[in-house]
Design goal:
Blueprint: E1 6-10, H1 15-26, E2 30-35, E3 45-48, H2 57-61, E4 66-69, H3 79-91, E5 96-100, H4 113-122, E6 125-131, H5 143-151, E7 153-156, H6 168-180, E8 188-191, H7 199-210, E9 215-218, H8 221-228, H9 234-248, H10 258-263, H11 270-281
Parallel strand pairs: 1-2, 1-4, 2-3, 4-5, 5-6, 6-8, 7-9
Length: 282
């Protein structure tokens, strides 16, 4: 694929979508930036898009030949919404699809794993990005970041389980590669940072870098589920709490070479990202 194409970025104002949009524009690619309000972004064509309003699909897809797909946030079963859109995208001339999933969700697994399994049957050119937990969860608008700022605490049910946290900028760099290179990379791309950390270590790094005293308080699985259910549907809260339980059991204790292999540089460290992001927030 070449710069002559047009990329539709769904969720263009979100954590990875905004970064992917900015990188595509900087590289000279045409971008349609899709969001529920059609928010203007520098260098991109804003378009209104809502997963739950199919009438917005055709206008967003017009002229696009590739798409970055961020499923609806907080939806425990996105396939009934996402798959009809992807079928419409294929019929409209989209040739390549890059789907944002999670390292915790394999092909055919729950939630977006169902979409992952269907993707090869819909597009000849496709990739699934399966990043580990975002480093920005501790620096942006995520509940972890909010609890750090307000209470100096990180609340999880992960115990001493370790995670290869990844920088959202590194995810975006891989997304641009997958969207624009002449050959789409291997379909299933697990993305991590350069090391694994448990949440006690995360709290220690945030404390050292920011000067804010931060501790990790361990919850039970049920305590976490009930806490999350105040903000998201109970089914999704149970899914998220189950991911913490899996982390405690070692499911995310790994690193991969995907970022280095596809971008030509190593993934950024958690300490570097905390210093960069908290510096912006001051």
């Amino acid at each position: 694929m070449t710069a002559a194409g047009t990329t539709l970025v769904i969720g263009a104002t979100g954590t990875t979508g905004s970064r992917t949009t900015a990188r595509l524009v900087a590289a000279g690619h045409r971008v349609k930036a899709a969001s529920r309000r059609g928010t203007p972004l520098p260098g991109a064509e804003p378009v209104r898009f809502d997963w739950f309003e199919p009438a917005t699909f055709d206008g967003a897809l017009a002229g696009a030949d590739r798409v970055y797909v961020v499923p609806p946030v907080g939806e425990p079963d996105p396939a009934p919404v996402v798959l009809p859109f992807l079928r419409r995208a294929r019929a409209a001339g989209v040739r390549r699809a890059v789907l944002l999933s999670s390292s915790a969700v394999p092909e055919g697994g729950p939630a977006v794993g169902v979409v992952h399994r269907a993707l090869p049957g819909l597009f000849d050119e496709w990739a699934v990005l399966r990043p580990s937990w975002f480093m920005q969860n501790f620096t942006g608008r995520h509940p972890h970041a909010r609890s750090i700022r307000e209470d100096g605490v990180i609340l999880t049910a992960t115990g001493r389980g370790r995670i290869g946290f990844v920088d959202a900028d590194d995810i975006a760099a891989v997304a641009v590669h997958a969207l624009t290179d002449d050959r789409v990379p291997d379909g299933d791309l697990v993305l991590t940072g350069p090391e694994t950390l448990d949440h006690d270590e995360v709290a220690a790094v945030v404390t050292e870098v920011t000067g804010r005293p931060v501790v990790h308080r361990r919850l039970t699985h049920d305590e976490l589920r009930d806490r999350l259910a105040a903000w998201v549907p109970v089914e999704f809260a149970a899914l998220l709490a189950g991911m913490d339980r899996a982390i405690e059991g070692g499911a995310e204790d790994r690193t991969t070479d995907t970022v280095r292999r596809l971008t030509g540089r190593p993934p950024r460290s958690f300490r570097l990202v905390v210093a960069r992001e908290w510096g912006r927030a001051r």
